Amino acid sequence: MKPALILVDIQNDFCPGGALAVPDGDAVVPVANRLLERFPLAVLTQDWHPKGHISFASAFGKEAYSLDLSTNPPSVLWPDHCVAGTHGADFHPLLHTEKAKLIVRKGRSPQLDSYSAFYENDQVTPTGLCGFLRELGADTVIVAGLATDYCVRATAIHAAKLGFSVYVVQDGVRGVEAVPGDVARALDEMRHYGCTIVLESELPL
Ligand code: VGL
Ligand code: ZN
């Protein structure tokens, strides 16, 4: 068994004070830093959008958190966030980024979003992460970070579909919860695809 750690989008814009702040988002940082000590094969993802990105409500003159009904299923339109090269796109300043082996920047296509660390939201365009992990012999992934109901969910489910054993660290994730119950539903969906939801203290690795 060879584990790899994937820390999803622990960036200023997803933390309190950021453009798309996840409630209590910065609470994942100490957990993430302990996981970085434990798992040397560590990958960080970074949401990294061009200005005017298709996921931004402002690109359509719409309200943030409204729905784009032209996609199937409808997609949430976000406040402008994680614009490439801005402070909001930087990792949280207390995250021990120097411990990571790889940074995957996602959401870089102007016309296509990418929640998952493995595939863009068309569900077929790969980021290259699967090949990286497989070539290094990883068969298990541990997932933590932001946000439980979007990028953590998509990353964990793709990892399970790709055949990795997946552990999602429940106290190391936080969600947007745009609709009440979204976090609980996301955890259920991850379980449905075979992911194990565990507390940091219960990780069997
Ligand atoms: C995310 C919404 C938009 C995430 C990224 O990291 O979960 N959510 N972009
Ligand atoms: Zn984004």
Characterization of this structure:
The chain is an alpha/beta fold. The protein has one domain: Isochorismatase-like (Rossmann fold), CATH 3.40.50.850. Helix content is 21%, strand content 20%. The chain has four helices and eight strands. Strands 5-2-1-6-7-8 form a six-stranded parallel sheet. Strands 3-4 form a two-stranded antiparallel ribbon. A hairpin with a 6-residue loop joins strand 3 (67-68) and strand 4 (75-76). Helix 3 runs parallel beside helix 4. It is globular and about 50 Å long. The protein starts with a strand and ends in a 7-residue tail after the last strand. The mean pLDDT is 97. Pyrazine-2-carboxylic acid binds at residues 9, 14, 47, 55, 78, 146-147, 150-151.
What is the radius of gyration computed over CA atoms, rounded to a whole number of angstroms? 16 Å
CATH topology: Rossmann fold
What is the number of strand segments?
A: 8
**For the terminal residues, how far apart are their CA atoms?**
9 Å
Distinct small molecules bound, one entry per kind: pyrazine-2-carboxylic acid, zinc ion
Q: Which geometry do the CA atoms define?
A: globular
CATH architecture: 3-Layer(aba) Sandwich
Number of helices: 4
Give the uncertain stretches in residue-range form: none
Question: Mean of the pLDDT scores?
Answer: 97
Structural class computed from helices and strand pairing:
alpha/beta
Please indicate the percent range of residues in DSSP E strands (runs of 2 or more). Answer: 15-25%
- Share of helical residues: 10-25%
Q: Which CATH class applies here?
A: Alpha Beta
Whole-number count of domains: 1
Q: What is the H/E string?
A: EHEEEEHEHEHE
Main sheet specs: 6 strands, parallel
| Superfamily (CATH H level) name | Isochorismatase-like
* Strand line-up across the major sheet: 5-2-1-6-7-8
